[in-house]
Each structure stands twice: as C-alpha cells, then as structure tokens.
Design brief:
Blueprint: H1 2-6, E1 12-14, H2 19-27, E2 33-34, H3 41-49, H4 56-74, E3 79-89, E4 92-94, H5 100-110, E5 114-125, E6 128-141, H6 146-156, E7 177-181, H7 184-188, H8 192-201
Parallel strand pairs: 1-2, 1-3
Antiparallel strand pairs: 3-4, 3-5, 5-6, 6-7
Helix pairs in contact: 3-4, 5-6
Length: about 210
Amino acid sequence: MSEFLQSGKPPLILASSSKVRARLLEAAGLAFSVQPPGLDEHIMRQAVGSTGALSPQDVAEVLARAKAEAVSELVPGAFVIGADQVLAFGGRIINKPDSMEAARKELLDLSGKSHTLHSAVALASKGGTVWAHSESSTLLMRELSPQFIGGYLAAAGEEVLSSVGAYQLEGLGIQLFEKIDGDYFSILGLPLLPLLAALRREGAIDG
C-alpha cells in the first residue's frame, strides 16, 4: 500500500509511542517509522499548562508541535507527525494516571459527568511545524459504581495508564460511556482525516 501512496516521497515518522496512533496510520495504508521524541511529557505539561495562560486545546497543540519538531530536528528530511491529547474536566487538566489507584479515583470523579478531550496533531519538516490542527470532543460517562470500576480496571489492566481518563474507547473503555459527541479518530488520539489532507497538500503522500 505504501507504494500506492508514498512512492518516491520523503520518509514519514510518527513521533509517538502510542500503539493506537500507529494502528490508525497503518490501517490508512501509510508506511512510517516510529521515533518517540524523548521528551518528558509530565514536565512539559506542567510547564505549559500550569500557568493557565493557555486553553487546554492550545496546550495539546503546543505539545504536539514540540514532539514533531524535536524529532524533525534529528531527521530534517522526513515529514514528522506529532500528536497530543488533553482531557479537560471541572476547569482543570487531567493527566494520565500514574497508578491503578489514581485511575480508580479519576473514573470516580468522571462518573456521571461530561468531560472534553482536546486532540492535536502537528506535521513538521526541517525542524519546524508546517501544519497543526486540533479538535475537541465531549464525552458523557455513565454513572459507574465503585464495584464496576474495580472490575473494569481489573479486566482492562495497566494498559489504561497510557491513556488520559484511564480508558481506551476502542476497547473495554466504550463500556463506560452514555454519549459521545465528536470525531472517533480524534477521540482515539489522532485527528486522522485532517492529517491525511495535510499530508496530501504537503506532498508527503499522493492524492
């Protein structure tokens, strides 16, 4: 499939260790390598989001740009995709849980309430961002009992610690929700259709 879309094109790199983002790009027929940016996301999020000067959506885009540019500086001849996702709830940004107990507390807080996912993607070349985009989705979690949350976490396992909100919509996480308003790919962490359009415009893939 890569010959169909990318014959003679510059290399494409995903600056993320996210298995879900990689699967989405693979399903779209793209050939790419994976090179995590090596940035401390926790410190970056604190530095960018702690002042309150940026909206959660802007925080996600700043981080996506930073990831893409960090790898692009190392491989200037490639097109580099960076992405980030920020969960906003109750006027604050919720980070990825660092333990199963933290995941349990997050789910108890989100139970029966709406929260917003801000997903951003950036495309970099020659060390600079050539395009960036962000989308917001609203998700209503159904009322969850502590017993159900415990069972869900036991079944889903520590994989939930890699996701904001301690859920993965493409798996058991779908069981947590009552209503979802937003683009499915963006909720998974990658606004895929705008990204593919940008790749075509930049000549990274055939159109």
